[in-house]
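Why do we care about 3D structure at all? Because function follows from shape, and shape follows, mostly, from sequence. That is the central idea of this module. The next example makes it concrete: a single protein chain, its amino acid sequence, and then its structure expressed as C-alpha cells.
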Amino acid sequence: MKIEVRLFATFREGREKKYFLELEENITPKDILDILKISSEEVAILLINGIDGQLNKPLKDKDVLSLFPPVGGG
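And the structure:
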C-alpha cells in the first residue's frame, strides 16, 4: 500500500518534506516513526488525512500522515 508522509518544522532537518512510501498492510504511524528515526515523544501533532490520529491505528492505502513537532515561539 502507498502512504504519503508529510514532515513539518524541525522534522525536516536532515529529511525530506514529503515521503511516498510503499509499505505492507497494517502498518501504523508508530512503525513509520521508527523507519524515519523519529521518537514518538517528539511528536506533538499527528494527523491522518487531516484528522487527529493515533500512533497505533493501522493506516490504509493512500492515507496521508502529517507529523508536527512541538512549536515554540517568542
